[in-house]
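Methods — Computational structure assignment.
A single polypeptide chain was analysed. Its primary sequence is given first, followed by the predicted tertiary structure written as structure tokens.
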Amino acid sequence: MRNWQYKLLALLLAIFVWYLISGREKVDYWMEVPLEVESLPNSYIITGGLPSKIQVRVRATRAVLERLQQGKYSYSLDLSKIKIGQNVIVLDEKAIKLPLPIEVVSFLPPRLEINIDKIAHKNVPVVVDWKSSVRHFERYFKVEEVSSIPNKILVRGPSKILNDVKKIKTKKIIINPFEKCTFEEMVPLDLLPEINSEIGSVKVKIVLSPKRKEFWIVRNIFVENKLNKGKIYLRPLKCRLYISVPLYLMEENKWKKDFKVFVDLQNKGRGKYELPIQVRRSKDILILEKKPMSAKIIIK
């Protein structure tokens, strides 16, 4: 172990030289940066070809790259000289501000093919898009009203797309007229992604009504809520009714279920009374005429 001091010194010098060389050795590194659009004319709109981020290949020493990873950088895309149509833009290292001595080697993609169109404005009608969940809707129901407020809207978008837009639909509405025949709500518009509007929804009103059949019937008059004691004399015994029945209740005579003509004694005692003739029925059955309107009752 002679001259071990010299050997140790040589080893330390070798490590120091290696550190100097490796610290100054440049390496490549891929980094992702966002695109920031600048100076786009107000009357123009980008319709395609613009990514949100690009890949940048940079070259520097490891120490510098470590500091680079801690910062936030972006690529400034100057579109002041852009034209309508397709524009090929070669990416420029000057558009990304990186600290020295970092060298920009390449971009991915190396160029952008950006499509530009002119912004257009257009007034178009609003169409309420709806349907019924009921089978044979046309057989049983009719449409009284379908409207929206407003019924026209101003839309904004690329002229090529807007030229083909003749109307704007609402989002699809599904209605069950057995549950309710009147729909009145705010409904969102079904806009294309490229089109904007000052409003995002409209007030929609849809009024439906059942198709009906009108006819005369004769029914016995029943007495309800009578006391057990006493004898009851009722005149008349029958009532003629002119009724309006929805067609869906006409099938299999469904309208007759729970249909009853009666007078309500309300537990009255002996005496003479004239009471209104009432009709218990489905809420959708209309009584257009009733003859007579009342019945005379004697309780003995």
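Note: The mean pLDDT is 89.
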